[in-house]
């Protein structure tokens, strides 16, 4: 195994220091982390190779690759991929290169003419998306981030998908992999309740879809804000750009349209501008 360089050690030390800052921010609010960042439900390359890991990270920026991983989970039977069922959604020429990489990375195994999904125990893509979003925050923005966080003593459940610190402001990101029509009003109510209890200064509802979200997501969030969570405010939605909506000053809805890094950058800049002006 390659020894850790001084630069890698220093970078790792700074990352741990930043995570301590995030945990301190939560403790000042009276919250204690009971669980976070568990990798046992995250799809990751089995082969410990830096180039494969980097390629996997870059592939996750592609919406089609994320959707394929999600579909693989749904069409497996005792770990084996039902290729016939998968090909009712995809053309083989669309996914053959992805399959080659997944086999080379150890995520899939080819056994004769069948493909075996090595993460056979997973039933959804959710934790992998949370891990990926946290990696974007850390790698692209140097934002300390924790994912899959469970906080003690929060009534109704203290599960938070991604938490981070942008400047000194607490960031909460809720990640959804379901199509908009499958996101219940109750799901949105629980999301807004967690936001209220946590007291995050910037909140992002990230839904990993390119489908329309105006009716099932935007309208229902506005309904809940008007009736329960912000009844004294004028809750007007702004379409910031394609795939980004906001309820000023600090609640954003983000879809999988365009570049994730560019879109997060836009949201962070817009939030910090509003913090100054409000």
Structural class, please?
alpha+beta
Radius of gyration: 20 Å
**Which descriptor suits the 3D outline?**
globular
CATH class of the largest domain: Alpha Beta
The residue ranges in which pLDDT falls below 50 over 5 or more consecutive positions are: none
**Strands of the biggest beta sheet: in what spatial order?**
1-6-7-8-9-12-11-10
Query: What separation lies between the terminal Cα atoms?
Result: 52 Å
User: Can you summarize the main beta sheet?
Assistant: 8 strands, mixed
Proportion of residues in β-strands: 15-25%
Average pLDDT rating: 93
Count structural domains.
2
Helix-strand topology string: HEHHEEHHEEHEEEHEHEEEH
* Alpha plus pi helix count: 9
CATH topology value of the largest domain: Trna Endonuclease, Chain: A, domain 1
Helix content: 40-55%
CATH architecture of the largest domain: 3-Layer(aba) Sandwich
Q: Tally of extended strands?
A: 12
Short description:
With about 280 residues, the protein is an alpha+beta fold. The chain has helices at about 5-30, 50-60, 65-75, 85, 90-105, 125-140, 185-200, 215-230, 260-275; strands spanning about 35, 75, 80, 110, 115, 145-150, 160-165, 170-175, 200-205, 240, 245, 250-255.
Explain what the structure shows:
- It is a single chain.
- The protein has helices at 6-28, 50-59, 63-74, 83-86, 92-105, 126-141, 185-198, 214-229, 260-277; strands at residues 33-35, 76-77, 80-81, 108-111, 114-117, 145-151, 159-166, 169-176, 202-207, 238-241, 244-247, 251-255.
- The chain has 278 residues and is of the alpha+beta class.
- The chain folds into 2 domains: 44-117, no CATH class; 126-277, Trna Endonuclease, Chain: A, domain 1 (3-Layer(aba) Sandwich).
- Strands 1-6-7-8-9-12-11-10 form an 8-stranded mixed sheet. Strands 2-3 form a two-stranded antiparallel ribbon. It has a two-stranded antiparallel ribbon with strand order 4-5.
- Helix 7 packs across helix 8 (214-229).
- The longest helix is centred in the N-terminal third of the chain and has 23 residues, at 6-28.
- The chain is globular, with a radius of gyration of 20 Å.
């Amino acid at each position: 195994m390659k020894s850790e360089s001084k630069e890698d050690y220093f970078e790792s030390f700074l990352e741990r220091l930043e995570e301590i800052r995030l945990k301190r921010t939560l403790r000042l609010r009276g919250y204690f982390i009971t669980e976070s960042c568990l990798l046992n439900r995250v799809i990751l390359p089995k082969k410990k190779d830096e180039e494969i890991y980097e390629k996997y990270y870059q592939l996750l920026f592609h919406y089609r690759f994320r959707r394929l991983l999600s579909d693989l989970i749904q069409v497996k039977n005792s770990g084996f991929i039902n290729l016939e069922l998968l090909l009712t959604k995809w053309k083989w020429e669309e996914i053959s290169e992805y399959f080659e990489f997944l086999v080379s990375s150890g995520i899939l195994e080819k056994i004769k003419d069948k493909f075996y999904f090595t993460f056979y125990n997973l039933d959804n893509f959710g934790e992998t998306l949370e891990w990926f979003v946290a990696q974007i925050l850390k790698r692209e923005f140097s934002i300390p981030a924790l994912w899959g966080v469970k906080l003690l003593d929060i009534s109704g459940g203290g599960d938070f998908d991604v938490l981070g610190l942008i400047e000194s402001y607490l960031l909460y990101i809720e990640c959804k992999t379901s199509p908009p029509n499958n996101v219940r009003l109750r799901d949105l109510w629980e999301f807004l309740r967690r936001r209220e209890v946590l007291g995050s200064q910037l909140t992002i509802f990230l839904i990993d879809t390119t489908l329309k979200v105006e009716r099932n997501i935007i309208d229902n969030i506005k309904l809940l804000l008007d009736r329960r969570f912000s009844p004294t405010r004028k809750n007007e939605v702004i379409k910031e750009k394609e795939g980004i909506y906001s309820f000023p000053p600090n609640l954003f809805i983000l879809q999988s349209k365009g570049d994730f890094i560019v879109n997060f950058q836009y949201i962070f800049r817009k939030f910090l501008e509003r913090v100054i002006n409000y």
